[in-house]
Amino acid sequence: MKKLIVSLFIICAFVLGLNKIVFASSGVSLFFSKGCSFCHVINGYGGSMVHGPDLSHVGSKRSLSWIKTQITDPSAHFAYGSSVTINGKSYIANMPRDKYMSASQVNTLAIYLESLGGVRDNNKALEREFNRRTDEYNNIVNEISPNTMQNVSTLLSAASSYVSFLRSVIGKTGDYSLKRTAERNMRKTEDFQNALWQDRQNIVSYCNQSGLESPYASLQRDARWNSICGQ
Question: Angle 118-143/149-172 helices, nearest 10 degrees?
Answer without folding.
Answer: 170
